[in-house]
Write a structure and sequence with these properties.
Blueprint lengths: L6 H14 L7
């Protein structure tokens, strides 16, 4: 991925991961 992540991007990705894998901890 060439572009850098913003804080909002990171939060969105973590939220999506949490919704997909509610039993797994967030890094």
């Amino acid at each position: 991925m060439s572009r850098t992540f913003t804080a909002n991007d990171v939060q969105k990705i973590r939220l999506e991961k949490l919704m997909k894998n509610p039993d797994k901890p967030i890094d």
